[in-house]
Amino acid sequence: MTHSPTPCAIVHGTAIALCLAALVNGAAFWLKRTGLIDSAHYQHYLAYKSSLQITGRSDPAWSEVRRFQSRALVRLYSVNRVQALAKAAKYAAVAVLIGLCAWSWWRASGGRYLPAQPLFLVFAAAVLIALAQSWRYHNGAFLVPAVRTLGFLTLLSTAAAVVSTKNLRILSNYLILLLLLQLIMLPFELSWGLDIYTGSAFAYTPGDRAVGVFLQPASLGLFAAIALSAFLCFGDTPATMRLLAVCLSGVVVSASGSASAMLLWVLITGYALVSAAGLSGRARAGVLLLLATVVLAATPWLTARPDVMASLWGRVEKMQAVLDGAQSLDVWLFGQGLGVGSNAAFHWIRYAASVGTPVPALPAYAGSDSTPQTLLIQTGVAGCLAFYAFVGYAALRDREARPLLVILALASLFTNLLEFFPVDVLLALLLARSAAMRNRPLQRKTAGDSGGPTPGMR
Predict the structure, then answer these.
(1) Are 21 and 182 within 8 A, CB to CB?
(2) 316 found inside a domain
(3) 328, β-bridge pairs
(4) CA 272 → CA 22, 42, 68, 282, distances in Å?
(5) What is the sign, positive or negative, of the torsion defined by CA atoms of 141, 142, 145, 146?
(6) pLDDT per residue as tens, the chain (458 positions)
(7) Long-range contacts of 195-200 (CB under 8 A, 24+ apart)
(8) Does a structural domain hold residue 361?
(9) Residue 337: domain span
(10) CA of 178: how far to CAs of 182, 276, 415, in Å?
(11) Which runs of consecutive H residues, i.e. helices, occur in 257-280?
(12) How far apart are CA 32 and CA 141, in angstroms?
């Protein structure tokens, strides 16, 4: 299927809508953390914290501070009806994008084309089986949280006509602009924001970790690394602009204090440097392996978190718990159903309970913090293997997007990409690009579409 020449203004408008939705999604959290709204709670937190006069983590009062910080987080994450509507902006933005994709798909093929790449079909089948599992085991109670995954699959199925290099370049440029806004917000957040997270060696004051509008420090850091990767893969800008993007994202990553984001940022920056140096594939792999080893060894100091590696092993233990807790062979193979165990399900059940609606019991592992865990819960071993086989095959075929897909695959081990807006949109578009390929890997080829000289990262 050929890419439909979607009007440039529509592509720009849709990319802007996605970035605005990401800003609105986390605006209430950031405004409350900095005291611009809900100032009474903000002042109460500062007064209580200063009354303890702690000197560090070894202080006997530190455990009480951590308990108080946990209660403060609950308040920051809570939303009223207006804020809930604002968070729904991301659903509207994705719906608009799906509409654009469907329109372009109809213009390009008259409705006769559907992706037929085998691994895409296997993944789609796994998602549909998981939807049936949700009805079977939960009587459709998790259909609302399942909208995120169904939207991801729908976008993946219809986006083949809009995933040209030109359109992906436009999106990557706007993602960098969104990252620039986070950088602008950093000084205010780190100077006046409530210090409710454990510290980073590069934060302005001990205890501060930046969040921006991404609700979690790790999410902000991972977004910075992924946005940089997309910009380096698809951007067609001078070397000075690419260097500026590397520095910009590095500041945001360090301010987030995320070990996983630091690792990905070093890998993507290192890959760009060794590619520019013209090293052989074996030499590139050796340099990147060395960089990864150094960063992993230094993360306890870089993040000021001596137990930071425990968070990685904690994710592995959660995945093992999911497999060990499978009630039957079909649950082990095909999961408990779409929407189950997701962060959306966790918040949906809390909201339904608050308004008196009967809700199912939350599983012990509710609130997934990695994509494999989410897939194992919802789609079972079959769905998890199908997803990663699809991503791996896409990386093999699409030389231009390969570095970005590798970074996304690594990031998926540390966060749930299927609920990570707007990264989930970017991933769906890249996979749709692979599913639309026919018999040969995608090359950067036409001057009108690509505008760049070579495949891969420049």
Answers:
(1) no
(2) yes
(3) none
(4) 27, 43, 43, 15
(5) negative
(6) 545 556 788 889 999 999 999 999 999 999 999 989 888 888 888 887 777 666 556 666 667 767 777 777 778 888 777 888 888 899 999 999 999 988 888 887 766 666 668 889 999 999 999 999 988 888 877 887 888 899 999 999 889 888 989 999 999 999 999 999 999 999 999 888 887 775 544 433 444 789 999 989 999 999 999 999 999 999 888 889 999 999 999 999 999 988 889 999 999 998 888 887 777 767 777 888 888 888 777 777 666 666 666 666 667 778 888 888 778 898 899 998 888 877 777 776 766 666 666 666 555 445 578 899 999 999 999 999 999 999 999 999 998 999 999 999 999 999 999 999 999 999 999 999 988 875 444 444 444 444 333 333 44
(7) 195/49, 196/33, 196/69, 196/72, 196/73, 196/76, 197/69, 197/257, 198/257, 198/303, 198/304, 198/305, 199/257, 199/304, 199/305, 200/254, 200/255, 200/256, 200/257, 200/302, 200/303, 200/304
(8) yes
(9) 110-435
(10) 7, 26, 20
(11) 259-276
(12) 32
Does residue 57 sit within a domain?
Answer: no
Q: State the angle between helix axes of 239-256 and 165-192 in degrees (0 to 180), rounded to the nearest 10.
A: 40
Place of tokens 């897909």: 405
In DSSP terms, 442 is beta-bridged to 398
The dihedral sign for the CA sequence 286, 399, 94, 338: negative
Number of domains, the chain: 1
